[in-house]
Protein backbone atom coordinates (compact mmCIF):
# COMPACT_ATOMS: atom_id res chain seq x y z
CA UNK A 1 0.00 0.00 0.00
CA UNK A 2 1.31 3.44 -0.90
CA UNK A 3 1.53 6.27 1.62
CA UNK A 4 2.33 9.98 1.55
CA UNK A 5 3.30 12.58 4.14
CA UNK A 6 0.93 15.49 4.74
CA UNK A 7 3.41 18.10 3.49
CA UNK A 8 3.89 16.19 0.22
CA UNK A 9 0.13 15.94 -0.28
CA UNK A 10 -0.29 19.65 0.41
CA UNK A 11 2.26 20.43 -2.32
CA UNK A 12 0.37 18.18 -4.73
CA UNK A 13 -2.86 20.03 -3.87
CA UNK A 14 -1.22 23.34 -4.78
CA UNK A 15 -0.09 21.96 -8.14
CA UNK A 16 -3.33 20.41 -9.26
CA UNK A 17 -6.55 18.60 -8.59
CA UNK A 18 -6.14 16.04 -5.79
CA UNK A 19 -9.01 13.86 -4.61
CA UNK A 20 -8.88 13.38 -0.85
CA UNK A 21 -11.45 11.42 1.15
CA UNK A 22 -11.69 11.52 4.94
CA UNK A 23 -13.03 8.28 6.42
CA UNK A 24 -13.79 9.57 9.93
CA UNK A 25 -17.28 9.88 11.39
CA UNK A 26 -19.27 12.89 10.13
CA UNK A 27 -19.07 14.65 13.50
CA UNK A 28 -15.26 14.35 13.54
CA UNK A 29 -15.07 15.59 9.97
CA UNK A 30 -17.38 18.50 10.73
CA UNK A 31 -15.25 19.69 13.65
CA UNK A 32 -11.96 19.83 11.67
CA UNK A 33 -10.74 18.43 8.38
CA UNK A 34 -8.08 19.01 5.76
CA UNK A 35 -9.07 21.61 3.19
CA UNK A 36 -10.34 19.93 0.04
CA UNK A 37 -11.32 16.67 1.76
CA UNK A 38 -14.66 14.95 1.23
CA UNK A 39 -16.20 12.81 3.97
CA UNK A 40 -16.95 9.14 3.29
CA UNK A 41 -17.22 7.38 6.69
CA UNK A 42 -15.41 4.06 6.97
CA UNK A 43 -18.46 2.20 8.27
CA UNK A 44 -20.42 3.06 5.11
CA UNK A 45 -17.50 3.01 2.65
CA UNK A 46 -18.33 1.35 -0.67
CA UNK A 47 -15.19 1.44 -2.85
CA UNK A 48 -17.12 0.94 -6.12
CA UNK A 49 -19.48 3.80 -5.30
CA UNK A 50 -16.58 6.11 -4.42
CA UNK A 51 -14.87 5.36 -7.72
CA UNK A 52 -18.14 5.82 -9.63
CA UNK A 53 -18.48 9.32 -8.10
CA UNK A 54 -14.89 10.41 -8.74
CA UNK A 55 -14.28 13.75 -10.37
CA UNK A 56 -11.12 12.65 -12.13
CA UNK A 57 -9.98 9.61 -13.99
CA UNK A 58 -9.91 6.19 -12.41
CA UNK A 59 -6.15 6.22 -13.06
CA UNK A 60 -5.55 9.24 -10.79
CA UNK A 61 -4.54 8.49 -7.20
CA UNK A 62 -7.16 8.59 -4.47
CA UNK A 63 -5.81 9.88 -1.16
CA UNK A 64 -7.35 8.59 2.08
CA UNK A 65 -7.08 10.36 5.44
CA UNK A 66 -8.50 9.84 8.93
CA UNK A 67 -7.55 11.11 12.40
CA UNK A 68 -4.20 9.39 12.82
CA UNK A 69 -3.85 6.67 10.19
CA UNK A 70 -5.60 3.57 11.53
CA UNK A 71 -8.99 3.94 9.83
CA UNK A 72 -7.46 5.23 6.59
CA UNK A 73 -5.26 2.11 6.46
CA UNK A 74 -8.39 -0.05 6.82
CA UNK A 75 -10.14 2.00 4.12
CA UNK A 76 -7.17 1.65 1.76
CA UNK A 77 -7.29 -2.11 2.28
CA UNK A 78 -11.01 -2.09 1.39
CA UNK A 79 -10.17 -0.35 -1.89
CA UNK A 80 -7.34 -2.78 -2.65
CA UNK A 81 -9.59 -5.76 -1.83
CA UNK A 82 -12.17 -4.33 -4.28
CA UNK A 83 -9.54 -4.26 -7.03
CA UNK A 84 -8.51 -0.59 -6.99
CA UNK A 85 -4.77 -0.04 -6.93
CA UNK A 86 -3.94 3.66 -7.02
CA UNK A 87 -4.89 4.30 -3.37
CA UNK A 88 -2.62 6.36 -1.12
CA UNK A 89 -2.79 6.51 2.69
CA UNK A 90 -2.04 9.91 4.26
CA UNK A 91 0.48 9.31 7.08
CA UNK A 92 -0.41 10.85 10.43
CA UNK A 93 -3.89 11.83 9.27
CA UNK A 94 -5.71 15.01 10.15
CA UNK A 95 -3.73 15.34 13.37
CA UNK A 96 -0.45 15.58 11.43
CA UNK A 97 -2.10 17.84 8.83
CA UNK A 98 -3.25 20.30 11.50
CA UNK A 99 0.06 20.18 13.42
CA UNK A 100 1.94 20.96 10.20
CA UNK A 101 -0.05 24.20 9.91
CA UNK A 102 -1.68 23.13 6.65
CA UNK A 103 -5.09 24.57 5.69
CA UNK A 104 -8.01 23.08 7.62
CA UNK A 105 -11.72 23.76 7.76
CA UNK A 106 -13.09 24.10 11.28
CA UNK A 107 -16.76 23.76 12.08
CA UNK A 108 -19.09 22.74 14.85
CA UNK A 109 -17.28 21.04 17.73
CA UNK A 110 -18.76 17.88 19.21
CA UNK A 111 -17.52 15.51 21.88
CA UNK A 112 -15.12 12.99 20.30
CA UNK A 113 -16.69 9.61 19.63
CA UNK A 114 -14.32 7.70 21.91
CA UNK A 115 -15.14 10.09 24.75
CA UNK A 116 -18.84 9.40 24.12
CA UNK A 117 -18.09 5.64 24.28
CA UNK A 118 -16.19 6.05 27.55
CA UNK A 119 -19.00 8.06 29.15
CA UNK A 120 -21.68 5.63 27.96
CA UNK A 121 -19.76 2.50 28.99
CA UNK A 122 -18.84 3.98 32.38
CA UNK A 123 -22.45 5.02 33.01
CA UNK A 124 -23.78 1.57 32.11
CA UNK A 125 -21.22 -0.20 34.31
CA UNK A 126 -22.03 2.09 37.24
CA UNK A 127 -25.78 1.67 36.63
CA UNK A 128 -25.41 -2.13 36.57
CA UNK A 129 -23.43 -2.11 39.83
CA UNK A 130 -25.86 0.22 41.63
CA UNK A 131 -28.95 -1.65 40.43
CA UNK A 132 -27.28 -4.97 41.25
CA UNK A 133 -26.64 -3.81 44.81
CA UNK A 134 -29.94 -2.03 45.51
CA UNK A 135 -32.51 -3.75 43.27
CA UNK A 136 -31.49 -7.27 42.21
CA UNK A 137 -28.15 -9.04 41.77
CA UNK A 138 -28.99 -9.93 38.16
CA UNK A 139 -28.42 -6.29 37.18
CA UNK A 140 -24.68 -6.92 37.61
CA UNK A 141 -25.01 -8.70 34.26
CA UNK A 142 -25.27 -5.26 32.64
CA UNK A 143 -21.79 -4.40 33.92
CA UNK A 144 -20.48 -7.77 32.76
CA UNK A 145 -22.02 -7.29 29.30
CA UNK A 146 -20.41 -3.86 28.87
CA UNK A 147 -17.08 -5.21 30.12
CA UNK A 148 -17.23 -8.07 27.61
CA UNK A 149 -18.01 -5.59 24.84
CA UNK A 150 -15.00 -3.48 25.78
CA UNK A 151 -12.77 -6.56 25.79
CA UNK A 152 -14.08 -7.53 22.35
CA UNK A 153 -13.43 -4.00 21.07
CA UNK A 154 -9.90 -4.07 22.42
CA UNK A 155 -9.17 -7.48 20.89
CA UNK A 156 -10.67 -6.80 17.45
CA UNK A 157 -10.38 -3.05 16.99
CA UNK A 158 -14.13 -2.98 16.27
CA UNK A 159 -16.41 -1.29 18.78
CA UNK A 160 -20.12 -1.93 18.48
CA UNK A 161 -20.94 0.87 20.91
CA UNK A 162 -18.90 3.35 18.85
CA UNK A 163 -20.72 2.24 15.71
CA UNK A 164 -24.10 2.75 17.38
CA UNK A 165 -23.15 6.12 18.87
CA UNK A 166 -21.73 7.23 15.52
CA UNK A 167 -25.18 6.82 13.98
CA UNK A 168 -26.87 9.03 16.57
CA UNK A 169 -28.30 12.33 15.23
CA UNK A 170 -25.77 14.54 17.04
CA UNK A 171 -22.94 12.67 15.28
CA UNK A 172 -24.38 13.15 11.79
CA UNK A 173 -24.13 16.02 9.36
CA UNK A 174 -27.25 18.00 8.57
CA UNK A 175 -29.06 16.68 5.54
CA UNK A 176 -28.00 13.04 6.06
CA UNK A 177 -26.91 11.11 3.02
CA UNK A 178 -23.97 9.40 4.73
CA UNK A 179 -21.31 11.91 3.77
CA UNK A 180 -20.35 15.50 4.42
CA UNK A 181 -18.83 18.01 2.08
CA UNK A 182 -17.96 21.49 3.25
Choose one word for the global shape: elongated
Helix content: 40-55%
The first-level CATH class of the largest domain is given as Alpha Beta
Domains, number: 2
Q: What ranges have pLDDT less than 50 throughout 5 or more consecutive residues?
A: 175-179
Gap between N and C termini? 28 Å
Rg over CA atoms, rounded to whole Å, is: 19 Å
CATH architecture annotation of the largest domain: 3-Layer(aba) Sandwich
Keywords:
alpha/beta; elongated; 7 strands; 182 residues; Inner membrane protein YgaP; 2 domains; two-stranded antiparallel ribbon; transmembrane helix
Offer a quick outline of the entry.
This protein is an alpha/beta fold. Helices cover 48% and strands 13% of the residues. It starts with a strand and ends in a 16-residue tail after the last helix.
General description of the model:
It is a single chain. With 182 residues, this protein is an alpha/beta fold. It has two domains: 105 residues, Oxidized Rhodanese, domain 1; 59 residues. The chain has a five-stranded parallel sheet with strand order 1-6-5-2-4. Strands 3-7 form a two-stranded antiparallel ribbon. The radius of gyration is 19 Å and the shape is elongated. About 3% of the residues have low confidence.
Protein topology:
Layout: E1 2-4, H1 6-15, E2 19-22, H2 26-31, E3 32-34, E4 37-39, H3 47-52, E5 62-65, H4 70-81, E6 87-90, H5 93-99, E7 104-106, H6 113-134, H7 140-156, H8 160-166
Parallel strand pairs: 1-6, 2-4, 2-5, 5-6
Antiparallel strand pairs: 3-7
Helix pairs in contact: 6-7, 6-8
Amino acid sequence: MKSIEVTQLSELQKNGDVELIDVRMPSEFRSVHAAGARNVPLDSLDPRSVFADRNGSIDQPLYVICQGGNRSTKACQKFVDAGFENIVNVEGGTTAWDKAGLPVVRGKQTMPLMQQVQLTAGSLVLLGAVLGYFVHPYFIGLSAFVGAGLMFAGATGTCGMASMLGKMPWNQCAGGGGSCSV
